Amino acid sequence: MEIKERSVNGVTILDLTGKLDIGVGDVQLREKIRNLMDTGKKQILLNLAAVSRIDSSGLGELVSSYTTLTNSGGKLKLVNLPDRVQDLLMITQLNTVFDTYDIEQEAIRSF
Questions:
Q1: Residue 95's domain spans which residues?
Q2: Could you count the other beta carbons within 10 Å of the beta carbon of residue 111?
Q3: How many independent structural domains does the chain possess?
Q4: The model's pTM
Q5: 10 Å Cβ neighbour count for 93?
Q6: By C-alpha distance, which of 108, 49, 34 is closest to 82?
Q7: Distance CA 16, CA 92 (A)
Q8: CATH of the domain at 57
């Protein structure tokens, strides 16, 4: 898992590349989001366009990060979901929890 960070209009965008799965991707994402929160960055947009795989641990980390940010007054939103990830969110009914967007500019404006 590779995570690149950028900022647009006060929103921190994390471009994720690779596998969001047990042992590596989930830990990296958790540490990255916790570090951002420690520096006061609480408006986070995850760009999942290049995520090739997500397992239950990766999905669990998305939920955990969402909860942690929400409880601290922040927001976590998702953009550019691959079909497999979108299907997974629908099957687990997490599509009702996460704000998801197809276009990055719309996602940024939503903050």
A1: 2-109
A2: 15
A3: 1
A4: 0.94
A5: 8
A6: 49
A7: 21
A8: 3.30.750.24
